[in-house]
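Tip: read the tokens left to right.
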């Protein structure tokens, strides 16, 4: 079973919260936090670490150690026999974490803004672009964020990262308009992966990818304070 949790980061974190939070994360992550210039990015990163650590400890019923691999992707290094996975994403005032006890998982969230749709050609396949260009503007905005987050969730789940050519993945846009997800790519590597779309409020698009196909029906919200209690 895959689950997704979210914490809102709109309100400024207090000094007391920071003091307690810093004691819960590795020293290497503290150094990473200090490199952020924008306070909101620093807050989101901190909340993502706290959320992932709490969820993993709740799942495993024991303390965990989180490290990073050579692609900078966080993972549980202790207990080393853990066969599951987790992934973090944040956008604007929301931070989310998806976790599974079995398999791999990737998650992505984006705030839905009016955006320059010309960048679609940077990540959409030729077939997707043909279908996309036939859509009315309202549907183009909707599909843009669904495709972007779906593809991001895939490269995060596989660990490929942004170097992966996203044009290699083709989704069926007419079906996506009906909230049905179908990967049209013939590559064998996609056969093991499942996808799902979610909305967080009316302004945020969330996509999930995992080779554990037991997906949740909704995103669970947690409070900031619960991450340090």
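Filled-in amino acids:
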């Amino acid at each position: 079973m895959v689950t997704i949790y979210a914490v809102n980061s709109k309100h400024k974190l207090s000094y007391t919260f920071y003091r307690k939070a810093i004691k819960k994360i590795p020293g290497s992550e503290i150094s990473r936090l200090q490199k952020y210039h924008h306070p909101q990015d620093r807050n989101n990163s901190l909340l993502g670490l706290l959320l992932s650590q709490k969820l993993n400890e709740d799942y495993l019923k024991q303390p965990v150690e989180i490290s990073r691999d050579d692609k900078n992707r966080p993972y549980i290094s202790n207990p080393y026999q853990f066969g599951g996975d987790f992934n973090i994403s944040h956008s604007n005032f929301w931070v989310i974490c998806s976790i599974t006890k079995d398999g791999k998982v990737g998650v992505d969230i984006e705030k839905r803004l009016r955006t320059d749709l010309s960048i679609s050609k940077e990540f959409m396949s030729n077939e997707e672009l043909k279908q996309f260009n036939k859509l009315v503007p309202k549907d183009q905005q909707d599909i843009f964020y669904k495709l972007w987050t779906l593809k991001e969730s895939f490269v995060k789940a596989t660990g490929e990262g942004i170097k992966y050519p996203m044009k290699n993945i083709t989704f069926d846009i007419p079906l996506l308009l009906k909230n049905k997800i179908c990967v049209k790519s013939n590559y064998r590597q996609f056969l093991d992966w499942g996808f799902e779309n979610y909305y967080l409020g009316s302004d945020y698009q969330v996509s999930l990818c995992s080779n554990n196909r037991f997906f949740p029906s909704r995103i669970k919200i947690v409070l900031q304070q619960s991450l340090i209690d």
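The chain has two domains: 1-103+214-229, 107-211. The longest strand covers residues 2-8.
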